[in-house]
Amino acid sequence: MFELPPLPYAMDALAPHLTQETLEYHYGKHHQTYVTNLNNLIKDSPYASLTLEEIIQDTSQKPDKVGIFNNAAQIWNHTFYWNSMKPNGGGKPTGKILEKIESDFGNYEAFRDTFKQAATTQFGSGWAWLVQGQDGKLKVVKTGNADLPLVHGERAILTCDVWEHAYYIDFRNRRPDYVDVFLNHLVNWDFAEANLGK
Q1: Which of 52, 84, 183, 191 counts the highest number of beta carbons within 10 A?
Q2: The model's pTM
């Protein structure tokens, strides 16, 4: 049985940028529902003995397993999203992650513009990602619904959730403002750097 992973900070730790009310609904209800649904879907099946990543990989191209994929991938995506943020985060990074961003995007501002454009232009629900491709270079991609870099041979470095429930309580329909706040005040660059491959 899968369980809701603990948040890496208190429920009110991202305020005033993301309020406790947002996390109570987004983490406490949406994320929990994916866990509950997945457990119900895989009960007494061969998937019950697999890791989350194994379930995602095995079901990603199987139309008859889309329910299992969606719930498993959303557990993974949300857990990664919570870790992509921290209190007093955001702004321009330092260290190896900055060196890599400057090497692959030209400068931090170019990365920021590219990431914000991806996050604000993802039509409907989905995710903006900083990923490391198979060639080792960083790039920005966006995915719809539950789709994620894992099934495209890319290493996730950082993500921003752009499903409306991620920001609607605090920002209403102002997705660009939410993305600005994510980049300026919330990004956990230590987590991003730790995700870099060799």
Answers
A1: 84
A2: 0.98
